[in-house]
Amino acid sequence: MLDDIAAMNGEHLADYGDPEIDTRIAQYEMAFRMQTSVPDLVDFSDESAKSLERYGPDALVKGTYANNCLIARRLLERGVRFVQLMHSGWDQHSNLYTQLEQQCKDTDAPSAALVMDLKERGMLDDTLVVWGGEFGRTPFGQGDPAKPNGRDHFGKAYSWWLAGGGIKSGTVFGSTDEFAWNITADPVHVHDMQATLLHLCGIDHTRLTYRYQGRQYRLTDVHGEIVQGIIV
Hints:
This protein has helices at about 1-15, 20-40, 50-55, 65-75, 95-120, 190-200; strands spanning about 130, 135, 155, 160-165, 175, 185, 210, 215-220. The protein is mostly helical and about 230 residues long. It starts with a helix and ends in a 14-residue tail after the last strand.
């Protein structure tokens, strides 16, 4: 059936010559290759005991962050260009003292394991690892003034960490005051970070545009400077 559909699409392309048809055919074929590769991707029988131990006790538990980190490395080994991992539940307005420890326990070792695995396999130099979110948390407590048990959203100052892909290792860029409230040195705007990530991927952010509502737009708008201090 799939072969017949491919043949029909090919005839349609020959009749109309529309490159969009060729693009759609390529998308269908890529989707098929992705689906057929899944059984091999999630067959962990070839993973060494050392590797599984590195990712922690949840390495083989489906749906866990550790398992997703392991799958991410296997996807990258197979040539996948972009992999996104999500770990939810960081919105600790009222359960900071119970939930934050668990969140850190879930993500600390597997994140480190992923970076170490990529480095040992010679893949870290051309793989950019970005770990972060869209805002931080207040440096003061939230909730009952007598016993605050949460922290609110905070967008003035927060941190990401990056590894590989041209990033200068062991570097801390930027700083805040003693209360982690105001940035006191080397601020990095979101447009600066976008420009830097695009640069590390070999893309000039000043030239990458997309058309929307009749005009050209950039991801970095008319702003954005590459953060040279974190690049090798």
